[in-house]
Write a structure and sequence with these properties.
- The complex is a heterotrimer of chains A (320), B (270) and C (517).
- Chain A has 13 helices and no strands.
- Chain A is mainly alpha-helical and 320 residues long.
- Residues 265-270 of chain B have low confidence and may be disordered.
- The chains are: A mainly alpha (320), B mainly alpha (270), C alpha+beta (517).
Chain lengths: 320, 270, 517
Amino acid sequence: MSVLARQVARRLGIFAVTLLGASVLIFAITSALPGDLAQVMLGLDASPEALAALRAELGLDRPLPLRYLAWVGGMLGGDFGISRLSGYPVLQLMAPRFAVTGWLVLFGMIGALLIAVPAGMVAALKRRHWQGFAVNALAQVGMAIPVFWGGILLVSLVAVRLRWLPANGYVPLSQDPAGWASHLVLPALTLSLVQGAVLIRYVRSAFVEVLDEDYYRTARAIGWRPAPALLRHGLRNAAMSLVTVLGLQLSAVLVGAIVVEQVFALPGLGTLLLTAVQQRDLLLVQGTVMFLVLAVLAVNALVDFSYLAIDPRQRTGESR
Amino acid sequence: MKRLQLWLGIALVAGVVLTAAVSLVWTPFDPIRVVPGQRLLPPGWPHLLGTDGFGIDIVSRLMVGARLCLLVGVISVSLAAAVGVPLGILAGQAGGWVDEVVMRLSDVVYAIPAVLLAILLAAGFGASTVTAMVAIGVATIPAFARVARAGTLQVMASDFVLAARSSGTSPLATAGRHVLPNVAPLVGVQASVTFALAILAEAALSYLGLGTPPPTPTWGTMLRDAQSYVYTDPLQALWPGLAIALAVLGFNLLGDGLRDHLDPRLREVS
Amino acid sequence: MDNRASRSTRAGRRGPWALLLVLALTAVIAGCTPAGQQTTPAGDRHTLVVGATLEPASMDAFHNSAASIPQVLLYNVYETLVKVDSDGKLKPLLAQGWEVSPDRLTYTFHLNPAAKFASGAALDATAVKTGFEKLKADTKLTETLRAQAAIVASVEAPEASTVVFTLTRPSLMWLYDMSSTLGMVVDPTFTGDLATATAGSGPYTLQKLNKGTSVVLGKSPSYWGTPGRFDEVTFRYIADPNAQNAAMLSGEIDVVSNLQAPESLAQFSDTSRFSVIRGTTNGEVVLGLNHQTKALQDLRVRQALTMAIDRTALRDTVWNGEGTLIGSMAVPTDPWYTDLSGTNPYDPARARELLADAGYAEGLTLRLRVPTTAYATKSAKFVASQLRDVGVTATIEELDFNRWLAEVFTPDDAGKSNYDMTIVAHVEARDLGKFANPDYYWHYADPEFVRLFTEADESGTADQVAGMQSAVKFLADDAAAIWLFALPNLVITDAGITGIPQNATTLSFDLTTIASA
């Protein structure tokens, strides 16, 4: 038990340290480095009074470490700062958008799995035949496609030409479940196609490993068909591999979501962030990026913890 | 099959490099001069891929775009490797708390993806090619550090290194003589993969309006412009997207091919 | 051990079926949802969704110059004493009638006694007086409003429904200004923040501000006049022209208030689904020149820049041939409009000569800072390319609209404006007076033009047209700015919607005339 506790403590420690380090980096770039923060935010023509007022408001005359601590302290209490342009608290601006980006990322990942697992299986089982080559080739192509290009093409085909689905916009789930679903299909599909292509190779190699194992060969010898045998013995192996990769890929999916939100005009955290950048609303940028990084690190930490559950070897403290 | 992958990758990469090189001295038409009478011409002669909404030859714009995409790739990969590889070797050789510190630092940087870092830099310093290159470079330092570290650990455990260390060779000399040559191929593979990611990241940033400002053509901004014409002339969106996909595919295949060529038993490095 | 194995087997066998089920569900959901919404049958429409481009940063039109604010609020939420109808004529609104004194200095308005604010407070002469005095005293008023209000010497409220305005000098423009933002009457009992709430007397009130997405207006149940036809009107802001078109095509929005991608008109050719309105606006797309920049103070340079740009080709390239070519700050619907588009015609060779004469034979570099609206960014690219052909380097910088307002449009405290050239559409009606204001961001105010304009403004109706024509011609000859083209009014609506005027004569997207039948 103590070994397990130590493992958990270690991973929690890593999570905390990484989070802290990331916050320092984010703070440095948005608040510490730019020449005169007030000047950057207000522009070159700002009057001296306006600059002075903003500097006082942001507490810019205080030493850097104090400002950093104030920011972190605020966040721990739920205060991510105030957006200069709108005057609203950052968290309040972000709140309605969590769901949008969240759904997009969730369905994008689920869709990616739905694509990658069957495709990876085919690639593994038929790895010496044309089907295997074809899947690999498609995966390579899928990975090379820029996600926004895929989105534009899908919109032009499915939404405009065929008019099966709406081209952009969003409807909250509570308002209209059918509309909510129909607005998420194309954006999620765009993400799934690219992510799925990335995942295929991981699924494939996990399954391929299993193909060499004794218990697989035994199963085949008994009379099991390849696919069910592979699934029975390979799914756990693939699951571990996938869980790792999904954790690592979460930040990539999040970036993809930010871009996809632009293509489909979804009111998520991505569009909030991009508008904030264009308007030089530095505190909003700072708060939103910090939140996104926090989310990714938290999920990765959870993934690490789930390893302790899935893989018995982890509990004895063997290094990965 | 593996051979085919490698050669296809080499061919695609060579194609991009050649195009960029040629564009420095010649393009079929002026890549930024507006020609009002020639808007949205379909592919044909003399405009092989047609013209865009401003009458500018698409082939010429694609060629100049290749230049920028290579520039971003080279600078960011060089930056990432120049910082990441020595750090990784240091971590692998020194071990102990040095290793721990380097790994934690790299975790921190790794926590912020390249595009997000670029967005941060753009907010604080204004968007430009430079911020994109710096952001992508810095964000991929951890990847190079990890690869270098893994390779270093392997090498450090080998007999001749142990022998060299016990005979008194300094760590720096060990690094130079034994570690570096063995780590180099791994770094090469990582470089190729990172190059592909850099191209995608830069294209995304240009598409979002956070990359090179107008009128310099980049593949990402060409896609952004093409969106206006997606109903009247959908082909506009095809060419820059295809260019990006082919370039990325080339570097990915090159990376994979090199990896398979060097050591088929090598685990995934990403 | 066995449990986990059998679980994975079951999962394995179910895997492909689960996939099929999800795909089938998706297809069903997609099929069940109509492609967007179908056109609501005649008369059934209770809500309206209007697509617009630039989201207003606040709802306070007195402190923020963005035209997107009056687009939502004017006539819909806030009312004026007089309004301009779709023919450009002045009509009663809050005032049932008015008289002008023979010396044209005193305007007497007779208010409609039924008029009241949404809060229930009476809209009487005192309310109008209080409101206007407050406006005049406001130091943070936008420059345009400040200049417009400066003409008023005093406001009196002799009776409950009579308001008297006395001007410092005659001005026929003033009454038109009062039909726009300047004349919006605000509830004096309101103590909140006008940036986030409204306090007007119109048929609608502000219901919800969804930052980043939309502004929602709701019908005001206590409106003193004809009730609004819709229970709810949403202004949906979609900055990207293609996303806006896609939204219209799939039924997300019912109206495109002004098409930002004219090349896509053909997509709306299905008359059973869409109506297309093609008219004119008051919008001049002006390539503004900062007369504080030394090079631009030379007439030859300004003429050269004008001659370097083929404006016909620009309009064809950037706005797909829609819109009218204009040569000065007047649009075809202005009474004093004459076609001056031939002034300083396209002649790159002559442009190069003029630049050499002015001493810029080696070249000239100017900053072209534009907002990120479709017409501005595209025009900037075109202009930069053509200027390059005559040896002028225009470095393009694209700014988010709010940043453009803060950095280009608003001068710093020393009165300096940070740009050389910029491109923006000026959509207010009859706005050539801006060239007479040295504090306006162009910093023009040539004394001769000021003289011509003021005389024309003060003169009686008979001479006004001729007087304004001279003023307008002066601007063209002096190349005070470069007028690229006049924005067309391209409105796309669902087939069942009527009542949207062909020409946009005011800043307002007037909901009071729209019907669904």
